[in-house]
Design a protein that fits this description.
142 residues, alpha/beta, five-stranded parallel sheet, 5 strands
Length: 142
């Protein structure tokens, strides 16, 4: 494994995902990239002006969350890059894994008690299979 992408969004559940990615990177001496994807469309219908404000705020939050993940990795002796992207979550993750030729994607399973989820039901395993088929990357669901 040479490159690992960790899709992260912050919060308590994401810590386990980040820790798994850090562990894998250390174990394989692999490059680690934390990826945060924001999608203002997930916030519902809004005017173009408001959508831009929401997207800017989501980007700011994303950079802060990525910085926290970066510090966690550094504390464990793992260097990590941070990338924030905007767009539809699934397609953006898939495209990023393909563009970076990542060998692995680490992603968190949804928690049922946290409201609406991008990967509810059985959609995460279906997405994981799609990522592997289209990019060859191994997917670790935490």
């Amino acid at each position: 494994m040479k490159r690992i992408v960790c899709a992260t969004r912050g919060g308590a559940a994401s810590r386990a995902v980040q820790e798994r990615a850090i562990s894998l990177a250390a174990e394989h001496s692999a490059e680690l990239v934390f990826l945060y994807v924001s999608d203002s469309c997930s916030c519902g219908a809004m005017s173009d002006d408001l959508a831009q404000v929401v997207e800017d705020e989501l980007r700011r939050i994303g950079r802060s969350l990525l910085h926290i993940a970066h510090v966690r990795a550094n504390e464990q002796g793992v260097e990590a890059d941070m990338v924030a992207k905007c767009g539809p979550v699934r397609q953006t993750i898939l495209d990023f894994v393909a563009e970076t030729q990542a060998d692995a994607l680490v992603i968190g399973a949804p928690r049922t008690d946290t409201g609406a989820q991008e990967f509810g039901g059985d959609s995460l395993p279906v997405f994981a299979k799609q990522v592997t088929e289209e990019t060859g990357a191994e997917v670790f669901i935490v």
